[in-house]
UniProtKB/TrEMBL annotation:
Keywords: Membrane, Transmembrane, Transmembrane helix
Highest taxon of the lineage: Bacteria
Protein name: DUF4199 domain-containing protein
InterPro entries: DUF4199
Record organism: Bacteroides muris
Chain ranges passing through the membrane: 12-32, 38-58, 70-97, 151-171
Amino acid sequence: MAENKGYMQRYAMLFGTYMGVFWISKFILFPIGLSVPFLLFLFMGLTLCVPFMGYYYARMYRNHVCGGGISFLHAWIFTVFMYIFAALLAAVAHYIYFRFIDHGYVLNTCETMVDTLAQSNMPGMDSYIATYQEALETARLLSPIDITLQMISSNVFWGSILAFPTALFVMRRKKDDAPAE
């Protein structure tokens, strides 16, 4: 297995690049989806596909690089690395979007949604509306790099969490390593 761990970074980068391109593609749907609900629904659906992609890539790594067997720790580290590389690639697109393209569109659209909710006069919503408005005011203070760093840390955090069940499902002893009966 020692020779296979040398390939771990290479394959984590490769599969992380594939996943990062997927994340960038689905991120394109987010700002557009704020005005077209179907695209926002599609964005959320594609987001739910991410753990399954992580499992698929980790399984491919186990079967093609590790000879069909991988320990839990090895699978977990590989999956975390893969999510880190995907998050780094997606961070470049996030920064470009928030620095050069957005110009406050996402925050303005969210503010419009909160204002519409406030005008509906639904009972018991006053505290929620105040919380949303306060969050939007705080978000307006963030620079594009702040938003990007927040998104990358969130992606790495959730990727690390998702790596646990992925590693549990992917781990397998090699056939020749199995104890004799």
